[in-house]
Design brief:
CATH architecture of the largest domain: 3-Layer(aba) Sandwich
CATH superfamily of the largest domain: Zn peptidases
Distance between the termini: 66 Å
Number of helices: 15
Shape: globular
Helix content: 25-40%
Radius of gyration: 25 Å
Largest sheet: 6 strands, mixed
CATH class of the largest domain: Alpha Beta
Structural class: alpha/beta
Strand content: 15-25%
Length: 498
């Protein structure tokens, strides 16, 4: 009897091992519906010239701090940058019609195609940059607005975000105009002026295109690139953003009688508020690995994962809890799999010996495509329902109050072209991904269902710390990659039909 039981247990275990291994070896690979694209020949690009042009663009201090920037009297850097563009890229300016989008200093270029039956492509970048934190200027290896070219890098605010992309696009477009290229498919270039604070310029530009009945076959903006030493595979992996997270801010408010701190009550307003924050921290929004873009991210990169990691993702029915726990401990990975909860601002009493009558906390949520603003509010209320006197309200939602973007398709011409360019520019596997921040591209979802966030560059984890940080920089080599890659995208989209 015992022998039969042991044989039975052994048989079940053997079957379990077979199932796990079978699923592991059959998990992943390139999605079968990604179109194969042969990339066309493009003009030769000199990376050092592109780098020098980026250096010049960085010196224009197009810094935005608050919605409404640039304010009256502060528009000088934007106008100077735009004059520099016209002087530096004369062939493209001669080939395309330039207009200033109403309400600011955003630009829309239209390079008219010969075939009006073909939907245009929309290329996007932005002119503005974030400020440098006061007192940190000396921490930079080169002054942040010098555009210094040293040790194989271009240093300066905007090198990655987003003047590198802007200059790369202009390099590609000008070279194509010089070569005599005449597009069949209209090429639109939109350069926002205030992406870092509101994106009102891009929003107005999209509304302008919508009013004209323009529906691009693709919109392409910043967001992702190939990343070396990435945590999923340990090697280089090229990411194409097919969606981006949304943004909403809630305010938690607890009211109490207040009074003198010499006779404090138990369970004061600040204590109850603290309990609410702890409850939200310990009860995060749920993770979900079953839907794109997260599910496709794991599958597309699986063949390059370490075996044990691939086994875990292939058998989430068994290892799902372990995956969520491990990814949840890494901020970047945690942000990829769920809506994140970030308490950012607290307020209470105005004096150290006065009890708070009104304690508030501002909590910023970055919305995953699986969630909505309504589901987040419901989650917060459910988790904090036992906190007496707690009110949950929309507060300080500010300039980024928007839901997650739709997930763009991967079975169309646009993704096929980007996939081919990403592979060519990086020599690495390519996977779709979820952009964690906000881009101007989110507005383009109003006129096309194919919005992507990708720049044809290869960056290290150290390079990526420059986003909004110290020592923002991009390699000279990447400036050559950007110019070539954008030219490949333009020509490949022109040479193929959906």
């Amino acid at each position: 009897m015992i022998r039969n039981i042991l044989f039975g247990i052994g048989g079940v275990l053997a079957l379990l091992v077979v199932v796990i291994l079978f699923r592991t070896f059959n998990y992943g690979g390139v999605p079968g519906d990604v179109r194969e694209i042969v990339l066309p020949e493009v003009p030769e690009f000199d990376a050092s010239i592109a780098a020098e042009h980026l250096s010049e663009a960085i010196r224009f201090q197009t810094v935005t701090v608050a919605p409404g920037d640039p304010r009256v009297g502060q528009e000088g850097p934007w106008l100077e940058l735009q004059a520099w563009m016209e002087e530096t890229y004369p062939a493209f300016h001669a080939a395309a019609n330039k207009e200033t989008i109403p309400g600011g200093f955003s630009l829309l270029f239209t390079w008219q195609g010969s075939d009006p039956s073909l939907d245009p492509i929309l290329l996007m970048a932005h002119q503005d940059v974030v400020p440098v934190n006061i007192g940190t200027e000396s921490d930079w290896d080169a002054p942040p607005f010098s555009g210094a070219v040293q040790d194989g890098y271009v240093y300066g605010r905007g090198a990655i975000d987003d003047k590198g992309s802007m200059v790369g696009l202009l390099e590609a477009l000008d070279a194509l105009a010089v070569s005599g290229f005449a597009p069949k498919r209209t090429v639109l270039l939109m350069l926002g002026h205030d992406e870092e604070v509101s994106g009102s310029g891009a929003s107005a530009g999209v509304e302008l295109l919508k009013s004209r009945g323009v529906s691009p076959i693709m919109a392409l903006d910043e967001g992702f690139m190939a990343v070396e030493n990435n945590p999923l595979t340990g090697g280089t992996l090229a990411f194409i953003g097919i969606a981006e997270k949304g943004y909403v801010t809630l305010q938690l408010t607890v009211t109490a009688a207040g009074g003198h701190s010499s006779t404090p009550p138990r369970n004061s307003a600040t204590v109850r508020l603290s309990r609410a924050l702890i409850a939200l921290d310990e009860n995060q929004m749920p993770a979900d690995f079953s839907k794109p873009p997260v599910s496709t991210l794991f599958k597309s990169s699986a063949s390059d994962m370490p075996f044990t990691m691939r086994m875990a993702f292939a058998n989430q029915w068994l290892f799902g809890g372990m995956i969520e726990k491990q990814m949840g401990a890494i901020p970047q990975a945690n942000a990829m799999i769920r809506t994140t909860t970030a308490p950012t601002m607290l307020a209470g009493s105005a004096k150290e010996n006065v009890l708070a009558q009104r304690a508030t906390a501002i909590i910023n949520f970055r919305i995953h495509p699986n969630d909505t603003e309504e589901s987040i509010i419901e989650h917060v209320k459910r988790v904090t329902k036992d906190i007496d006197g707690l009110e949950v309200s929309l507060g300080r939602s500010g300039i980024r109050g928007t839901g997650a973007s739709p997930v763009s398709p991967m079975d169309n011409l646009a993704y096929g072209v980007l996939y081919a360019v990403a592979a060519d520019s990086s020599g690495a596997p390519v996977t779709p991904g979820l952009v964690l921040g906000a881009t101007d591209g989110r507005y383009a979802t109003a006129i096309t269902d194919s919005v992507y966030r990708f720049m044809p560059a290869v960056m290290s984890p150290e390079d990526l710390t420059g986003f909004h940080g110290t020592n923002e920089r991009i390699t000279v080599e990447n400036m050559g990659r950007l110019a070539k890659g954008y030219a490949q995208i333009i020509l490949a989209m022109d040479a193929n039909e959906e």
